[in-house]
Design goal:
Layout (H helix, E strand, L loop, with lengths): L2 H28 L15 H13 L3 E12 L2 E14 L5 E4 L1 H4 L4 E5 L6 E9 L4 E6 L22 E6 L7 E15 L5 E8 L11 E3 L5 E8 L10 E5 H14 L5 E2 L2 E3 L2 H6 L5 E6 L4 H4 L15 E5 L2 E2 L3 H11 L4 E8 L2 E8 L1 E2 L4
Antiparallel strand pairs: 1-2, 1-4, 2-3, 3-6, 4-5, 5-6, 7-8, 7-10, 8-9, 9-12, 10-11, 11-12, 13-20, 14-15, 15-16, 16-17, 16-18, 18-19
């Protein structure tokens, strides 16, 4: 073998040895044998301070809600877990607020704050049409702090929000995000559409239901109630019942256990059918006997003859485009109040005065 080739091989071998030795020397010099010193962090960012403050002040008032129901079968009976969710302190009398679907069908309801033992709760009132329920715990009430309440009218898309609850049973979990949209609608278990719903990208998962949605001042601005997802888990869209609706419904649940259902005693066509008929507004199909609409002279359609009846287009001068719009306006006005409806028949409009009635009344 020529001497030149031997020299090249030797040089390559020496280079490999030098490289390996250098790597080992580098590792030996820079290996941290002892615990590493803690690097100075500096102050927290302002948004971090806000998140921490909101959680520390609000979390003690947020509870884990669990339920059980009795069951019977051919082997006897027993109890099974019925559901779980979240809730929060409404007042110092021991009332808590949660979702109606969290306690639906339950024979027993339990409330647990943090690591404390669960206590039995009594269902005071339920409003399925708004997915809200009020509970009461009968225990020493020291330390129960109601969360402050905000206002739906102040909300803007893009503002920071915080959700606290028990997703998948993990107690007092904080997620953050922004208000993604306002004035969404959400169907309830009764078919009634909840209006003014808040959409957020703060992570809301099963178990968050009934927990508070808070603003950066730590005020409740909504009650987390649903997610828009094809998998049943969070996919970027969470929905919350707006606090103005909550603040209107809860006093009724506390005083009477149910909520009034303002209406005028009509059956109306769906928005799809109204569009097919080329009508903008609420198409009256039928009028209940003895109801407010009948007393005001509103008439329904004559289906056999194919004759269209009255179409309600506005309430107190505000346009209504759907049954949901009409329902929302009547809820805002309240039972017993007189409203002026703009009604169209055969292309002619007229004003009709109607007293709002409680459709839930006997």
């Amino acid at each position: 073998m020529p001497q030149r080739i031997l020299l090249s091989i030797a040089a390559a071998a020496i280079a490999v040895v030098v490289y390996v030795a250098g790597v080992e020397l580098h590792r030996w010099i820079f290996t941290a044998d002892d615990a590493r010193p803690v690097a100075p962090r500096g102050d927290l960012a302002e948004f971090e301070k806000t998140s921490i403050a909101v959680f520390r002040s609000s979390a003690p008032s947020v509870a884990y809600i669990s339920t059980i129901r009795q069951h019977r079968d051919i082997f006897g009976g027993g109890t099974v877990s019925s559901g779980a969710g979240s809730g929060f302190v409404w007042d110092r009398a021991g009332h808590l607020l949660t979702n109606a679907h969290v306690v639906s069908g339950a024979d027993q309801v339990f409330v647990r704050f943090g690591t404390a033992r669960p206590v039995t709760a009594r269902v005071v009132g339920v409003a399925p049409e708004f997915d809200l329920a009020v509970l009461r715990i009968d225990v020493p009430l020291t330390g129960l702090t109601p969360l402050p309440i905000g206002a739906s009218s102040e909300l803007v898309v893009g503002q920071q929000v915080y959700a606290i609850g028990s997703p998948f049973g993990l107690d007092r979990t904080l997620t953050t995000g922004v208000i993604s949209a306002l004035d969404r609608t959400l169907p309830s278990a009764t078919g009634h559409e909840i209006s003014g719903v808040i959409q957020t990208d703060a992570a809301i998962n099963p178990g968050n239901s009934g927990g508070p949605l808070l603003d950066s001042a730590g005020r409740v601005i909504g009650v987390n109630t649903a997610i828009a997802s094809t998998t049943g888990s969070y996919s970027g869209i969470g929905l919350a019942v707006p606090i103005d609706t909550v603040n209107r419904v809860v006093p009724q649940l506390l005083s009477r256990g149910t909520v009034a259902r303002p209406g005028i005693g009509i059956s109306a066509a769906s928005q799809e059918i109204a569009s097919q008929l080329g009508q903008e507004g609420v198409v009256v199909i039928d009028v209940a006997r003895g109801g407010a609409a009948e007393a005001a002279g509103i008439t329904g359609a004559d289906i056999e003859r194919g004759v269209l009846g009255d179409v309600i287009t506005a309430v107190n001068g505000k346009k209504v485009a759907s049954v949901s719009d009409l329902s929302q306006r009547l809820h805002e006005i309240g039972v017993g109040e007189r409203v002026e409806l703009t009604v169209s028949r055969n292309g002619l409009e007229r004003a009709v005065s109607v007293v709002v009635q409680d459709l839930n009344a006997d």
